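Translate structure to sequence.
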């Protein structure tokens, strides 16, 4: 999977790289997270920035 080669991306970066809107990426991340395929975490020191692995 492409995301596995780019660990720690912010959802907004992923949306930009894949040329998709942020709402679609957010739904995809939530779906993959629910299936245990993706882990989303908050960046240390910055509660607003979230990253995906």
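Result:
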């Amino acid at each position: 999977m492409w995301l596995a080669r780019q660990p720690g991306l912010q959802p907004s970066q992923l949306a930009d790289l894949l040329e998709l809107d942020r709402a679609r990426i957010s739904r995809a991340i939530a779906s993959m997270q629910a299936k245990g395929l993706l882990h989303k975490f908050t960046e240390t020191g910055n509660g607003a920035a979230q990253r995906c692995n």
